[in-house]
């Protein structure tokens, strides 16, 4: 059991657009989490130095449960360690061409070290299925939320990312009908606050009851 007294919730802000919809949604979710007593931290992915994966497969070669080391010297280790260490995470990216944007996809490709994939194996195998916390997944789109949920793929990608990080997805939120001239509505931001508060509660519960199944958040 973790000895920390305060639940830690970390938000990954994956939009290129500082102070845009995703940024505001992450801020609101973290505000909700703080309202439940959690400590919070925001990672602005745009401000991190993350290179493209060079497909050297160095990080996938060595066996063992821990993420393989990437030889590229940039901020990858620091970003992943912060997300791994959190009790709850918010993964947030806008929908671009039906899926998460390239910035978040670029980070996901660098996360291949969570898999063991020696040259002799046909495909990668996840190194560990251990769950260490919860994840709230947020996306935004020009399309209405219902269309994004049914026709776009961002949650499939964000879910995969959460699982690699050892976090069990427990809720999703779409900030639909976004235009460059108008930010999210107060109703949408309030939903993000509520989801953030729920994430903090679920993450705190998880700290003390790591094996007990819990209800998901509402929609
Ligand atoms: C290159 C590009 C592609 C986009 N593709 C889609 C799309 O496939 N579906 C959609 O609903 N919105 C799409 N959008 C709209 C963005 O999702 C929307 O502007 C974004 O969610 C706003 O979030 P932000 O302010 O945090 O960047 C696209 C926007 C851009 C710039």
From TrEMBL:
SUPFAM superfamilies: Flavoproteins (SSF52218). Keywords: Flavoprotein, FMN. Residues 9-112 form the NADPH-dependent FMN reductase-like domain. It comes from the Bacteria. The keyword DNA repair does not apply. It holds the Pfam family FMN_red. One of its GO terms (molecular function) is oxidoreductase activity. The keyword Acetylation does not apply. This is NADPH-dependent FMN reductase. The lineage of its organism: Bacteria, Pseudomonadati, Planctomycetota, Planctomycetia, Planctomycetia incertae sedis.
